[in-house]
Design a protein that fits this description.
L-amino peptidase D-ALA esterase/amidase, Ubiquitin-like (UB roll), 2 domains, seven-stranded mixed β-sheet
Length: 407
C-alpha cells in the first residue's frame, strides 16, 4: 500500500544529505547566518525551475550551465547579495563560488549549483565568502541552519517534508524555501531547495517539478513583482534504493503527489510570511471553461491591489473580486458568476449570484475578512476546470519595509 506521511516541521535531512551554514558575513551590518551548503554523499539526479524574468542573476546562469547533464551533488546559497545585474564580474564570482565549494567537498565544480538572494546590483564580497566556505561544517543535523541562512526579510524559516512509498520502498523528502517580498506568479524573490533519497529518472523528475511549481509557487502573490534570482532545485540521490522511478513506476504517482504537497505547503508559508502581511487570501475558482482560465482568474484575484487592501481593511467590497476576474482574461459571464467570502471560524457569506448582488450580513462578512485566512470562492459555471491561488494583504508595514530595504 502506497502512502505519504507529512512532517509538521521537517528539519531532518534524507539519508546521504548533509548541510551547514555560517555567517560569512556577506552583509557585515547584519548578524545572521548568510552562507550555506547542502551536499549529497552520492551524485544526484537533479532538476530545476527558474524565474521567468528576462533579467537573470549570475548564479542562476551558472546553475543552467551546470545542469545541462541533469546531475549535481551540492548547492551553495547565500543571502544578503543577489549577485544580479553584476556583469562579467558577477558571473566570474558565481563560478568561483562553485569552484571553492567543489574543492571543499572533493567534487567537480560543474556538480555544484549556486543560488543567491538579497540586494540587486551589488558584488559578492569574495574574500569573506571564501573564508566562509572554509568554515562551514556539514552534518546530518545542519538542515535548520541552512534554512535560516537563506532568509532575507523572512521572519521565520520555512520547511516541508515527509515520507512516501510503500513497505520495502520508502523514501524521504525534505524541502526549505525563503521568500517574503517580490512574490508573484511565475516565481518570485524566492529560493526553494528539495532533497530526496528516492531514485528518480531525470526526465520524470523534471516533469514532476514543473507540475509542482505550477500548482504552488506559480499560484502565489505578495506584490506583483517577479525577481531575478528565483530558483527551485530538487536533488534526488537514490540512496533509498530500488529501480529509478519514471512515469510507469508503481510509485510514480505517490512521488509526484508528495513533491507537489511539499511545494504547496512552502508556497503557503511564503504568503503567510509576506512582508507586512497580516492575512493569507485563498481564492478558489471553479467552473471555468479551461484550466488556463481557472488559473488566470484565481491569480488575478490574489494579485489585485484593490482586493488586497479591501481584505486588509475588512471591507466586504465584493465588486473588486468580480472586477479582478473580469480583468483576468478568463472567459466569464456576469449572469452566471457566484461569489462568496468565508473563513473557518466565521462561516460562508454569499455576496453575488448570477448578475445581481445578494443581501448579506455585513458583520459576518467583516468577521470572515478579519480572519488570519480569508477564503474567496468564484463559481463561473462555464465548464469543469478549477484552480486555487494564494496571496497576502497589503499594509502600511509593507510600504515601510520596502521604502528602506537597501538602507
Amino acid at each position: 500500500m502506497m502512502n505519504y506521511e507529512r512532517e509538521p516541521v521537517s528539519e531532518a535531512l534524507p539519508r546521504g544529505f548533509l548541510a551547514g551554514a555560517t555567517r560569512a558575513p556577506i552583509r557585515p551590518d547584519v548578524d545572521k547566518l548568510d552562507l550555506a551548503i547542502l551536499y549529497s554523499e552520492a551524485p544526484c539526479t537533479t532538476a530545476a525551475v527558474y524565474t521567468s524574468n528576462r533579467v537573470k542573476a549570475a548564479p542562476l546562469l551558472v546553475c543552467q550551465e551546470h545542469l545541462v547533464d541533469g546531475r549535481a551533488q551540492a548547492v551553495i546559497a547565500n543571502s544578503g547579495c543577489a549577485n544580479a545585474a553584476t556583469g562579467e564580474q558577477g558571473l566570474a564570482d558565481a563560478r568561483q563560488t562553485a569552484a571553492l565549494t567543489a574543492a571543499k567537498l572533493g567534487v567537480r565544480p560543474s556538480d555544484v549549483l549556486v543560488a543567491s538572494t538579497g540586494v540587486i546590483g551589488t558584488l559578492l564580497p569574495m574574500e569573506r565568502l571564501r573564508d566562509g566556505v572554509s568554515r562551514i561544517k556539514l552534518s546530518a543535523a545542519g538542515g535548520a541552519d541552512f534554512a535560516r541562512a537563506i532568509m532575507t526579510t523572512d521572519t521565520r524559516p520555512k520547511y516541508a517534508g515527509g515520507h512516501c512509498g510503500r513497505q520495502g520502498e520508502e523514501y524521504s523528502l525534505w524541502a526549505v524555501a525563503k521568500g517574503a517580498g517580490m512574490i508573484h506568479p511565475n516565481m518570485a524573490t524566492m529560493l526553494c531547495f528539495i532533497a530526496t533519497d528516492a531514485p528518480l529518472a531525470q526526465p520524470y523528475l523534471a516533469t514532476c517539478l514543473r507540475e509542482a511549481v505550477d500548482a504552488s509557487f506559480n499560484m502565489i502573490d505578495v506584490d506583483s513583482d517577479t525577481s531575478t534570482n528565483d530558483t527551485v532545485i530538487v536533488l534526488a540521490n537514490g540512496l533509498a534504493g530500488g529501480e529509478p522511478i519514471d512515469a510507469g513506476h508503481p510509485l510514480a504517482g505517490a512521488f509526484r503527489s508528495a513533491l507537489t504537497d511539499c511545494c504547496v505547503r512552502l508556497a503557503r508559508a511564503i504568503v503567510a510570511d509576506a512582508e507586512g502581511g497580516t492575512k493569507v487570501i485563498e481564492c478558489v475558482v471553479e467552473g471555468a471553461a479551461s484550466p488556463a482560465d481557472a488559473r488566470r482568474a484565481a491569480r488575478e484575484v490574489v494579485r489585485s491591489l484593490a482586493v488586497k487592501t479591501a481584505v486588509y481593511g475588512c471591507d466586504p467590497n465584493w465588486g473588486r473580486i468580480l472586477a479582478a476576474v473580469g480583468n483576468s482574461g478568463a472567459a466569464m459571464s456576469e449572469d452566471k458568476a457566484v461569489i462568496s467570502i468565508s473563513a473557518p471560524e466565521s462561516g460562508c457569506v454569499y455576496v453575488y449570484r448570477q448578475g445581481a448582488p445578494l443581501p448579506f450580513d455585513e458583520a459576518q462578512a467583516r468577521a470572515c475578512l478579519a480572519a488570519p485566512e480569508v477564503h474567496l470562492r468564484v463559481e463561473l459555471d462555464l465548464g469543469d476546470s478549477a484552480a486555487t491561488a494564494w496571496g497576502s494583504d497589503i499594509t502600511e508595514e509593507y510600504v515601510r519595509l520596502n521604502s528602506a530595504y537597501t538602507t
